[in-house]
Structure formats: structure tokens, C-alpha cells
Amino acid sequence: MIHKLHYISQPPTNGTHLTAIKAALNAGCKWIQLRVKDAPENLILEYALEARALCEEFGAKLIVNDHPEIALKAGAYGLHLGLQDMPIAQARQIVGNQMIIGGTANTFEHVEQRVTEGADYIGLGPYRFTRTKQKLSPILGLEGYQAILEKVRSAGINIPIIAIGGIEPDDIQAIMQTGIYGVAISGAITHATDAAQITQFIYQQLNTNALKEA
């Protein structure tokens, strides 16, 4: 099952990705994506191994961004691939059939592409400008999500789609009403004064909308 809240790691002001991941786990996050850019693979593997151990301690799932070999070596639950990364089919040959694979999309055509490639979920974005990602795709905003999700429904596509990119907790209610499955959040949890309180609020927003859907 794909979780509705994906925490994307980013180092806090005084700490590392592992510092951020442990804080997110303590705050109640259950789906953690280790996203490390511009670092040697041996360091990313070291992070991934420690992050997996932390996730196991908290009963959470670890997803590794970009690196199928590292995801496999670390025993991660899943792998997430960007639009410029290795094709999903090629990554599947490396990680096997059991590992969850998610893929980024920016347009409806990307969503179709990801479904054809065999993705287990899609990260659709960015919602707004974010400094956590370089080479940002065109910003979608709420209207972009509405337009793409309408096409998804019309095409009969049924796959969990996660909104990502600069999302704040107060955005969730409107985003979920477009038909999005869940959200990926980074800075709002990493830099929160009270990460547990923010995470609880995010879950409330996600669950309230789930009840409305039911």
C-alpha cells in the first residue's frame, strides 16, 4: 500500500539527511524518501543503510531516490525515479519485482508514460517553486492538478498520484479535492518548530479528505 504522506529528506540547518529522517520518524512520518543529490554513491549508501535501520525501528518504509543499486543493497522498500533518471523498466531489472517503484511526472503525457512503464505510484509536480530541487519542471499550481487529474479520470487511469513540490500543510485540503491520492512534503516538516504537531495536522487534512471521498 502506498502511504498518503511521503516525507522527502533534506538536511536541516544543523544536521544531515539522517538527522532530518530521525526527526520526521519521531514526528510520526511512516513513508520516508531518502533524496540525496550531488553526493558520492558510497555516502548515499551509508545514509540508506542507516535510514533503513531507523525506518525499521519506527515501523516505516524507506524509499531511495535515483539509485536502484543503492536501494537494492540497502534493502529499501522502494525506489523513486525522476524524469531524467533511468527508465523504470531498466531499474526493475536491477531491483526485481518486489520493490515498489515510483516515477515523477509533470504532464498528463508523463502520467501515461509512467503507467505504461509499470510504475506503482506517481509523484506529480511541482505544485509551486521549491528550492529543494534543481532543474525544476514547469510549476503546475492547483489549476494544473485539476486539469491533469480530469484527464486521468477520463482516461480511466487508476494509480496513486502524489502531489509534490513546495507543498505546505494549508495547501492539502484544496489539492486533495482535485482527486490526488496523497502529498509529499519536505521543508514544512524539516524546518517545523514542532514537527510532530505539523505532521499530525497533515494527517488530519489527509484523513478528513479521505472521509469526504468515502
Describe the structure in your own words:
- The protein has 214 residues and is of the alpha/beta class.
- The chain is built from nine helices and eight strands.
- The longest helix has 19 residues, at 195-213.
- 42% of the residues are buried.
Could you give a quick summary of the protein structure above?
45% of the residues lie in helices and 16% in strands.
List keywords for this structure.
single chain, 214 residues, alpha/beta, globular
Helix and strand topology:
Layout: E1 5-8, H1 17-27, E2 31-34, H2 41-58, E3 61-65, H3 68-74, E4 78-81, H4 88-95, E5 100-105, H5 108-117, E6 121-124, H6 141-154, E7 161-163, H7 172-176, E8 182-185, H8 187-190, H9 195-213
Parallel strand pairs: 1-2, 1-8, 2-3, 3-4, 4-5, 5-6, 6-7, 7-8
Helix pairs in contact: 1-2, 1-9, 2-3, 3-4
Mean pLDDT figure: 94
Oligomeric state of the chains in view? single chain
Question: Unreliable stretches, pLDDT < 50, 5 or more residues?
Answer: none
How does the major sheet shape up? 8 strands, parallel, barrel
Alpha plus pi helix count: 9
What Rg is obtained from the alpha carbons, in whole angstroms? 16 Å
Strand content: 15-25%
Distance between the termini: 18 Å
How many strand elements? 8
Sheet/helix structural class = alpha/beta
What is the string of SSEs from the N terminus onward? Answer: EHEHEHEHEHEHEHEHH
The helix fraction, in percent, is 40-55%
Order of strands across the widest beta sheet? 1-2-3-4-5-6-7-8
CA-based shape: globular
